[in-house]
Amino acid sequence: MGSFSSPVSSTGTLMVSLLDRTPSLPSGTRTRPNNISNAERRISFALGVTLVLAGANRGKLTGLGLAGLGSALLYRGATGYCHGYQLLGINTAQHPPSTVISTKQGCQVECSVTIAQPAADLYAFWRKLDNLPAVLRHLEQVAIIDEQHSRWTAKGPLNIKLTWDAEIINERQNELIAWKSLPGSLVDSAGSVRFTPLSHDRGTVVYVNLRYNPPGGQVSDKLASFFGLDLKSQIEKDLRRFKSLMEAGEAPNVTGQPRGK
Amino acid sequence: MKAVCWYGKHDVRVKEVPDPQLLNPRDAIIRVTATAICGSDLHLYNGVIPMMQRGDILGHEFMGEVVEVGSAIENLRVGDRVVVPFTIACGKCFFCRRKLWSLCDNSNPDAATARMLQGYSGSGLFGYSHIYGGYAGGQAQFVRVPYADVGPFIVPKELSDEQVLFLTDILPTGYMAAENANIQPGDTVAVWGCGPVGQFAIQSAWWLGAAQVIAIDHVHERLEMARIQVSAKTINFDDQDVFATLQELTGGLGPDCCIDAVGLESHGTAPDAIYDRVKQSVYLATDRLHALRQAIYCCRKGGTVSVPGVYGGFLDKFPFGAAFGKALTLKMGQTHVHKYLEPLTKRIQGNGQPGFDPSFIISHRVPIEEAPEAYHLFNRSKGECLKVVLQM
Asked: How far is Cα of residue B265 from the mean position of the Cα atoms in its chain?
């Protein structure tokens, strides 16, 4: 999942330091973004404490219910993360567009999948970058300009599209492909894919690392919703689908089958 | 086409639905000639399995004639008569290559729920909820079969539909249960549950060298079938103390191998069974497991408990201390049907000897239009109804 951290939260500070690392030192992905404003957190915490005490005092089933509700409010107040908000896509911690946020914002995803195919086959598929939209479904198109350069278009909610140019910055046959957006791009993006063969005929591990940042420090609402909080789970699904395509020759599918009305 | 569709607890209907289409290059379309209702379909009927949607087509035991093949299929031609395993397997992943077809990586198109429940998802299944892929099932006139170069098995012309239909699920399930029980020559095998899987597990136990096979149930007709058709000694747990009787029959040792062919919705009136039923009725997703508890308790030290299932959620009060203290081996899992198609077909053919005819378990043959009544009967009366075959 991507995240949009507020520098004021301690989790935010941790996220900032993680994002500081270069792509060659992969950081973990963050799963608990701060999505509650500070004022709301204070209220939530205070209300939570009150309800827990009231519940403990009252006892019985209703008391348990009150204490339960109170602990939930305590939790979201203390951590700044509300699962309910997450599910509803609400984020009261967001700042209005006019505020400039630190450049350390964006999302980074890393995940891997083991595929029972030789590294060479997987590399060959991936190196033909215009194949990527068939795998990574947040990409609408990757057009090849020349051996090193390509134009990428990503699509987001509400038909929003982002386009940028990228170049291959590193490659080792059957092992590694790394690419980066050109300076001045609308999106500061980098990605790499590694292919590591396993012993005992177990196939190849495909390790993908993708990063999307807004350039220059200007917060972009479009980017925030674009490379949304569920990019990691989306890419995990994409990689599993890639695995099915490479192993079974097709992705499992039930869309279009009959059912009763 | 006509199809048996799920509409809620105790609500299945035969509906007119569109014919299936080829969706992937490795698909085939089968015209169904025979299909059965499985005991595990009753879990769907009783609303015990979550993630069913109104209109889902049921059925995972089916066979028929190939009517269309996808562009990547070379092993099947239109007109071939096939049985289709209920587990869907790609044949190419880590698991399929190790003959663990029911654990296929590539046949569950929406594995999120299974991953959440289990960590990793097993294979997709026909007609068995969106946990297992949401595939339209085979209680219908036509079925779309994915990975048709792996699943469908061409059956010998001289064998009737009723002789081979159960290769799709319950016969391999009973056989694998017996295989998993690690039966050695001279062993005593105790089988809980005399439904079709139990009957076939008992028969398979003999094939695998058991010296004594004991069947445990409380439905009189099923115990009689076990005694007459597959030569088991029987214990009715309503009338007899199972542990004590097994002790008598094994000279105090206990059975070497125990098979739980009951799975979830296991009955029993002992306090633990009632507790289970209460919890399940408030949907706390706890499987009832009276038979499994008993099997663990009764098994001899160092023995094997084999669990063909079906289990779905969590267990309460699982006697793990007893299992540990007696150093039991527990083997379980969804059937790797593909592994057993050829050897079991040979058993049915006989090859010079009298073949094994599994059709003795069929108690009812009804036209597909009467499927809702059949489900109702099957659910209500296990004595009267053992296996329902739907005719097209």
From this structure: 14
